[in-house]
Design brief:
single chain; 153 residues; alpha+beta; 4-stranded mixed beta sheet; 8 strands; globular
Amino acid sequence: MKLKEYVLNSVSLILALVFSTNLQAQTEKGYILEGEIAGLKGIAKLYLCVHTGDTVARTIAKNGKFSFRGKLENDGNVYFIKLDTLILREKSRAIWLMNKKMEVWSSLTKWPEIEVTGSDAQDDYKAFSKLKKDAKLMGTDRDSLYKKFIETH
């Protein structure tokens, strides 16, 4: 009987540890934004900013490669990357960040244009922007545009 109790208690303890570790890993999940800016040589400071210009994260790029890490309170908010003002003064196009791994690419010659992968919110933004452009070319009204986007997402 004591062996059976010991085994049950051991199994219960192991399950509790596994569950608490899994729960902790889920709550610690945040974003990772890795990227590369072609043509950016040496070491440069990069800033992740909100639309007001306030900096929410900083990192150092080495030969164009960089990584931002953190945790967002809300997925799908808009951010921008700013380079050291000695390099460029213009911020990147909008990046819709989520608490997941994402990647961004650009070059000094194409800046502020960027390519982002890994963000569902960014994909939705791109799809909506394309739909908006197509609607303008076809003369479609704004309400029809919104309805079509909502139906497809």
